[in-house]
Predict the 3D structure of the following.
Amino acid sequence: MADAQDSDYPAHLGTYNAFSKLVLFSILFIVLLLSSMALGLVGGAPLFALLIGIGGTIALLVAFAVLS
């Protein structure tokens, strides 16, 4: 029984790491989206907010694609 648990550990560890990256990406994307919306709606800088939103989204996608 201990051998079965030992052989499952790398698979569980890989799943845990992938899920934690997904959660981190989701949190960072939500923060980026909310800050861009606040800057565009309340801050009065819609073009700057659009550039930050698009640039930040591309940067997040590239960063998580390279790091995985």
Observations:
- The chain has a mean pLDDT of 90.
- Residues 25 and 64 are 8 Å apart (CA to CA).
- DSSP finds two helices and no strands in the chain.
